[in-house]
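TODO from last week: model Glutathione S-transferase.
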Amino acid sequence: MAPKYVHHYLDASARGDPIRIVFYAAGVEFEEKLYTFACMPKIKADEKTFPLGQLPTLEIDGESHVQSHAILRYLENEFNLYGMCNKQKLAIDEILYTLQNIEDQFFTTYFITPKDQREESFRKIHGDAVRAYKMFEEILQKNNYGKDYLVGNK
């Protein structure tokens, strides 16, 4: 019998999206429970479902798991979507963690950096993003322009 998956996340686009995409790409059914920011105190109090008091959380047959990258990696492995060899897995991780670094820089700048310093910080992020996308283009070229895939052929 197939496991029952319940994906808990904010009713927003961010770190929960890649998890959704993996389910859709694999054609695997899952239940999705979306929450508003106003629900966060309730989530933080429910240690059984939300062990760290944060989202995303993935329940697998009633057992809760946390950390977006750990969940993502588990699902990719479970559904055979995480590369066919270690070199492909390395390329996937390079892309994932490069994007994560850019996202972290953006959120730090937007939410923490003083307003008078944001323009300079956003300029740096732009430069980092351009450099990253050049690297992604090289990965794609090495993969014969992907033919639907950035890494590998499935």
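Done. The helical segments are 17-26, 40-45, 68-78, 86-111, 115-142.
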